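for the writeup, i need someone to sanity check this before i put it in the appendix. the sequnce is what the collaborator sent (i think, or maybe the updated version? ugh). structure was predicted straight from it, no edits. if anything looks off just tell me and ill rerun, i have time this weekend
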Amino acid sequence: MKYEVTLPMSPPVCTVQHKGERVIYNNKGRPFVHHFIKKRQKAALDEYVKHLRQDIADRRDRDGIGTYSMFTTGIRVKIDFMFPHPSNTAKKNRSKRLAKITRPDVDNMAKGLLDCLTYVGLIQDDGLIYDLHLRKFTVEDGKRGVRIEISDEEETLNTEIETLKAEIEELKAQLKQETTQKETRNGEV
């Protein structure tokens, strides 16, 4: 099974790494640290959930009830965070996809999104992920968003098998061509 979606939103710059901490004293006067989610982070996670739920609902309506199921086995996840170009980007580079090497860190951006994928029920647990590809780059303003591709082990294996078959056929063709060239050279000598 495979699930692909591009969320039409700007990738959030507030990540789960940006948690707030506050020292609170209990009734006996002992201090403890209270961790809380900042408002910007909660807003970003809520936007992920909103777009994911909308996509799931659209797929259920389009494909019929019962065609949606959760990933419960090992999965491969690819996530592309596509930011708009900064205003100081040269005009000649605005149509290109450029690597974004500034904050936020891509691994921290993925943590919140993976938690949201679990929360909406797309994946049973983010511990099932055995292969995670993350990219962060800038694109034309109209193409910004977050692209997610999830595939289970069977889908991944089928894709890899098809790729290997194509490579084998290509190698066979090259070998046949080289053999024909050698025979031609030997016949000329």
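The first strand starts at residue 2 and ends at 7. The CA atoms of residues 1 and 154 lie 7 Å apart.
thx in advance!!
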